[in-house]
């Protein structure tokens, strides 16, 4: 389990993180969402032990991360800004990783190099940005990490490669209980992949929720009545309501069974519960928190 507790960090006079709390359960995929400058990369550098907080605590499996070699040997990290030794090719880089990570899997490495169609003898500095990202993924996944930390992992990758990347991640989560934290500014990228989501804004956590719970509790409803009752939605937690002719469109946050009970009691002539996308849920959950959140969800 990755646990961040009351973390604060300032750079000179700039407060980058404020009383930040974050929890990633073992064997799950956690999506960290925020616009540029929200603090995603800063907290990731804390979780990976690159930066030490001014106050607060970051632990993995109950152990402090900073200066902890044993934890870092079990962790894979792919930053948004990749680094390779300028004169190294992929084969030479794999030998370097093999010496760093005790669980290095040479068979997986060879298979992934072939599957991704990468040249082992070409200098990594001459790879395109997308190919460099693929190379970084092959190296990290071949180290068989227990914890995988990804910062904007699929930017610059084509759809086929994206699908292959997520396939490896999901399989390792299912088969080895690998724990994944992935940061992105794009909710569409994370829907269908993540078990839980955290939204970061201006260095603090706005919301941290389990996705299944979130989707089961927020509903889009269409309702029409022949004889409309007085205040038919009074008992419901209505996040949004509008009328389209004789049809009411509502976004409601309540248990599905309770919503059905309340609506059906009014004997509607039309009653539909429609699926919501992750983007729509966050729009109505967060409303107009601030312009930064609006940039994420629109």
UniProtKB/TrEMBL annotation:
Pfam families: ABC_tran (PF00005). It comes from Aminipila butyrica. SUPFAM superfamilies: P-loop containing nucleoside triphosphate hydrolases. It comes from the Bacteria. This is ABC transporter ATP-binding protein. Residues 2-227 form the ABC transporter domain. Keywords: ATP-binding, Nucleotide-binding, Transport. GO terms for molecular function: ATP binding; ATP hydrolysis activity.
